[in-house]
Write a structure and sequence with these properties.
8 strands, Rossmann fold, 246 residues, four-stranded parallel sheet, single chain, four-stranded mixed sheet
Length: 246
């Protein structure tokens, strides 16, 4: 479960971790874009994908499409399973944005219930949450094996990261392991201080990478990064620490 304030690189991290795990364990990875401003699919090179919001909207407007004897929620969940986008080495599920002024409560409830069943089919599930703190209060996920909060090296970013860790504890969301990613920096001198300050299992630093910035400017996916990419290598090294091989 990956969280962070806007602009710190959490979607980039989610994408690179997905690519790393999909190379290590093909077809065992489900990437979930839980950000209403969905762009994880673009960063992963998947293009447009059906969203949970689209499916809910379609069923709401056309209730006659629900088969007799099947409840609406069960049909929506069936459609979600059917419309998961299959890619080389990983699958993608996109939450999307509901039409109109309605809240995300129903979509989150559907996603939460679907996740409970989906996770058993994959070895790894990477959830890219929306920026900020609201997704925690909605409790889309009540527990995760690894919570990764992303920050940049600024005071504002680190304070925001600290609030996220605090809120997780206040809401009783279980995270077996907690990690702080400090993005766009190679400096590791403060890692031990951050580890104590945020009470995390590990602090990981990810350096700037001009190749990533270049792809972003061109609107091209991160699949175009070479194996020698500084950021890709750093994320792969982090992956080895987070998921050590047995």
């Amino acid at each position: 479960m990956i969280a962070g304030k806007g602009g710190v690189g959490k979607t980039t991290l989610a994408a690179l971790l997905t690519l790393y795990l999909s190379q290590r364990n093909p077809s065992a990875v489900l990437a979930i874009d839980a950000d209403p401003n969905s762009n994880l699919g673009d960063v992963l090179g998947c293009g447009q994908a059906a969203t949970v919001a689209d499916i809910i909207e379609e069923v709401s407007k056309n209730p006659e499409r629900v088969p007799q004897g099947m409840g609406k929620d069960a049909f929506i969940e069936y459609r979600i399973h059917e419309d998961i986008t299959e890619n080389k080495g990983f699958d993608l599920l996109v939450m999307g944005r509901p039409e109109g002024p309605g809240c995300y409560c129903y979509i989150n409830n559907v996603l939460r219930n679907s996740l409970a069943r989906l996770t058993g089919h994959y070895g790894y599930v990477i959830i890219d949450n929306e920026a900020g703190l609201e997704h925690f209060s909605r409790k889309t996920t009540r527990a995760c094996s690894r919570l990764m909060v992303v920050s940049d090296a600024t005071g504002v970013g680190l304070r925001s990261a600290g609030r996220m860790f605090e809120l997780v504890e206040e809401l009783g969301i279980r995270a077996d392991k907690r990690y702080l990613f400090v993005n766009k920096t190679a400096a590791k001198k403060d890692a031990e201080d951050f580890k104590k300050r945020f009470r995390v299992d590990l602090v990981l630093t990810i350096p700037c990478d001009e190749a990533v910035a270049g792809l972003s400017e061109k609107g091209e996916p991160l699949t175009g990064l070479s194996a020698g990419s500084v950021m890709r290598k750093a994320v792969a090294a982090a992956g080895e620490e987070i998921w050590p091989r047995s």
